[in-house]
């Protein structure tokens, strides 16, 4: 089995004069990210590999959750930055087969589109909700039968869970 964990970066700021790539987390994001890391750890959702967009907000999100996960070092993957679902799927498919679980930290709408494309079964209410929203700092967990990442395709994933910060009582 393969497990793909998609995490949208935590809430970011929009300071004037700052390029999109350099936008930092805002105070809400700085609170939510470590709390989502604690949730992932408590639920045993510990990735074997991590890929992160080069954007400041995604890297800060990873920095805030990394200690809770005690997982591997993240690989910064430029092609994840504001990428469409097809580019994100290419990153997933290029994951080495020795990796059983992959965490991808990126952006919308690409992550939401990828989750919707892959989730062919599983949590029905979660899939309906995912079609409507993918809030910042939210997590989607998709499970796949089989041993090869390069075989991951549309509809093959089972939505194991979709959790937003408000679902675990993270205050705004």
Quickly describe the structure.
With 172 residues, the protein is an alpha/beta fold.
Walk me through what this model shows.
This protein has about 170 residues and is of the alpha/beta class. Strands 3-2-4-1-6-7-5 form a seven-stranded mixed sheet. α1 packs parallel to α2 (about 55-70) and α3 crosses α4 (about 110-120). β2 (about 50), α2 (about 55-70) and β3 form a beta-alpha-beta unit. The chain is about 35% helix and about 20% strand. The protein has helices spanning about 25-40, 55-70, 85-95, 110-120, 125-130, and strands at about 1-10, 50, 75, 100-105, 120, 140-145, 155-165.
**Strand percentage, roughly?**
15-25%
What is the quaternary state of this protein?
A: single chain
Terminus-to-terminus distance: 36 Å
Spatially, the strands of the biggest sheet line up as 3-2-4-1-6-7-5
Strand and helix order: EHEHEHEHEHEE
The general outline is globular
- Give me the secondary-structure category: alpha/beta
* Helix proportion range: 25-40%
| Overall pLDDT level | 95
Largest sheet: 7 strands, mixed
User: What are the low-pLDDT stretches, counting only 5+ consecutive residues below 50?
Assistant: none
What is the helix tally? 5
Q: In angstroms, what is the radius of gyration?
A: 15 Å
Q: How many extended strands?
A: 7
């Amino acid at each position: 089995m393969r497990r793909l964990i998609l995490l949208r970066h935590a809430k970011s700021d929009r300071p004037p004069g700052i390029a999109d790539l350099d936008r930092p987390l805002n105070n809400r994001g700085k609170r939510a990210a470590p709390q989502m890391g604690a949730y992932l750890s408590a639920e045993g959702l510990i990735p074997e590999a991590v890929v992160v967009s080069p954007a400041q907000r995604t890297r800060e999100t990873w920095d805030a959750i990394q200690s809770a996960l005690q997982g591997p070092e993240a690989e910064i993957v430029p092609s994840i930055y504001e990428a469409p679902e097809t580019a994100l799927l290419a990153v997933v498919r290029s994951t080495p087969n020795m990796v059983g679980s992959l965490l991808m930290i990126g952006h919308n709408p690409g992550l939401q589109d990828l989750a919707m494309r892959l989730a062919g079964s599983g949590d029905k209410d979660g899939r309906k909700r995912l079609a409507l929203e993918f809030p910042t700092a939210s997590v989607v967990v998709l499970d796949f039968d089989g041993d090869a990442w390069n075989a991951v395709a549309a509809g093959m994933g089972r939505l194991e869970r979709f959790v937003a910060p408000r679902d675990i009582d993270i205050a705004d």
